[in-house]
Structures are given as structure tokens and as C-alpha cells.
Design a protein that fits this description.
The structure holds two protein chains of two kinds. Chain A is built from five helices and nine strands; from the N terminus they run αααααβββββββββ. By secondary structure, chain A is an alpha+beta fold. A five-stranded antiparallel beta sheet of chain A has the order 1-2-3-4-7, with no helix packed on it. Chain A has a four-stranded antiparallel beta sheet with strand order 6-5-8-9, with helices on one face. In chain B, helix 3 packs across helix 5. Chain B starts with 11 loop residues before the first helix and ends in a 6-residue tail after the last helix. The chains are: A alpha+beta, B mainly alpha.
Chain lengths: 205, 205
Amino acid sequence: MKNEHPSFDDIASYLDETVTARRRDEIGKHLNTCTRCDKIATRVRKVLQALRTDALTPAPTGLAEKALGAIREQRVPTLAERADSLLSRIAALVFDSNTRPAPAGVRGTVAPVRQLVYEWESDRFTIRVQREATGGTYEIRGQILLTEGRVDGLAVHLRPQSGRGRRTTSAITGEFAFEGVAPGAYSIRIASNGGDISLPGIELL
Amino acid sequence: MSGAPSFARESMRARSRLDEPLSKDDLLRACLRGEEEAWRLFLDRYGDLIFSVALRTGASPADAEEIYQSAVLAIYQKIGTLQDHEKLVSWIAGVARRQALYYLRKRSREAPQPDEGLDDVRDPAPLMQSELESLQRGQFLREAFETLRAVCRDLLASLYMTDPIPSYEEVSRSLGIPIGSIGPTRARCLDALRRTLETRGWEMT
């Protein structure tokens, strides 16, 4: 063989041991005498070694989405979030249809639909609670009415006093809904543009 | 910053449509803001590392999936404590390893122990330097791999990351590459990978 530099393919095949014994000898002898080719071989050898011994094992499909779901359900509020919820980001309940007095002469009854309106600064949040036809559960529908910023795609969390909450995302109109909600006391937390806002005291009795 | 980030509105959506991958710092900042899309990208980039640490700590594939979930939660809760972003890979590996050891120790207590007193759960200790370096090389390789064309990723994975290593006939059948083209294609792909690794600071000598 003339003292030609082997091609990159030849060097890779040499390192892979997929060349004939004769060709292997030829390339081996060349690498012993050619600094340039030996350097290339060293580099390729390192890559091959890494591929064979250091390559990570791919995580099974679906594992990441499952983990993201678990994070959403079990997120731990930061101290700042707790402080926010206690001090400054609780929206005020400005209207509750349950507290409106019955008209004179009419015995008051619990209305089948309860409407709540909350305000935080100039933003408004409406909640409509209705008992579902079967199962003793409730449907909660709401709408986010912000004076600034988008109202769609906001994360809305329904948070019970204990146990796991639920999460949904607001529609393009700012509306959101939770169905099949068990009786209990809840708050709703909305991740709006300026930060999380809590709508407290939603009691489903 | 400390504590777990909240899942705020997905301002990452616009960025995620771009072709440029996020830098590590930008990704971490978005994760700290609680952006769900950022966490999805984080798991896409580092999920294999988490899974591999679990396997290399001695977990079965099924156990590694469980460890993955708890490790991701732990990372989510503690990401704000990471001071030096350059140490992200070793930090993730450390969190995943501690979760793996805890899980395996718990399992070994729950399962009946053979009389021989076999204990395959090692004592908690920092990752050995050689283990850490291998994981770092694996992550480095993984990120470089992602920049290759699909045919290169598939071919190199088939030839070097599969056990048992398939024959050229099998590779030709599964990837649809003519047998005669496998060698030259492999060479081009290895060269592309080598150049990417060198550009990113991989030490070749």
C-alpha cells in the first residue's frame, strides 16, 4: 500500500474492527507513523468510547409528562406565595347571591345557583356554583375579567382545604369550569399576569 | 432564590416555537419563574440523566421510573437552591442519586431479606468522581446528539448504543439505508458528532 492517508471512513472502520485483517495492518502501520492521522484516530476513538460506555439510557416515553402532572398536583407553595396569599393577593368578595335578602312575603330558599363576584384592584372574577343533577356534586364555572393582559391560558387551581386540588386552564374568553366537584370548602387560585390571586370561601354545602 | 417556583402562565410558548435551543441560564431562569413549558424542556434535556442515575445506582427499570418521579419533584422543589448553574449536571445527578438510594433502601426494608443478609443498597456517599465524569460525558454527548440529523442519530444509536450490536444487514433493514452506504454515512455522522463535541468544548486529546 502506498503511504496514503486513510479516509475518515477507513479510520472509523479500523477502530470499529470492521475492516479486513490486511487493511487493518496497513492502517495500523500508517497511524504509527502519521501524527495527523493518529490524532484523528484518537479523537474518533474517544467519541466511540463515549458512545459505548457513557451514553445515557433514554427515559421511557411518557415519564416526563407524568412527572409534570405530579408537580402540578403536589406543588408546594413558596414562602412568598404563602405571604402573598395571606397579605396581599386575596380578592375581595363583593357580591354573593346567597346573602341577598328574599323579597318580602316570600319564604327564602337556597337558590339552585349561587353567584359570587370577586375583585382584586380593577380586575374582576365571577364564579357560578350549581349543584349537578346526579351524584351530589357541583359544577363551578367562572370567568376572569382583567383590565390588562390576556385572560386565556391562565392556570386555574381549585384548592380544597385538604387533599388534592384540581387544575384547568382558562379559555380564550377567560372562562373556566370544574365539574363533579365534591361538597366542601374551596378556594380558587388563578395565576394571572401580575401573580397568583386567590378567591377564597367557595363553600359547596 | 430558594423554594419551589409556582406554575405561572406559560410565557414560554412563544420561545418554545423558536428553533434555537435555550441556553442553560435562560432555561433555569424560566424554570424558576415556574413556567411549565420550561419544565417540559428541562425534562426533555435532563430526563435521561435522571433515569440513568437511577439505573446506575442499581434500580431496575421499573424502580427507576418511580425514582425518576420523586427525583423530578425534589429537583422542582430545590432548584432555587442551586447557586452555580455550571454545576447543574452534577447537582441533578446528586439529587437523583439520593432519591434512588432512599427508594432502594425503603424497598429493601419492605421486602423479606434472604438469610445471607445481602444488601445491595450502598451507603449514602457523594458520587464517585469517575461516575460523575461518565454521567457528565453522557449528558454532553446527549446534547450534542440532539444537533445531528435524524439519520445520524438513528444510525449511531444503532451501531454503538444497542446491545447486542446489530449487523449491517439488520441496520440496513431497520433504517432503510443501503448496506454499501452504511460505512460512509457512519463516517460522516461520526465526524459531525466529533465536530459538534469539539465546538462545545469536549476535550478530544
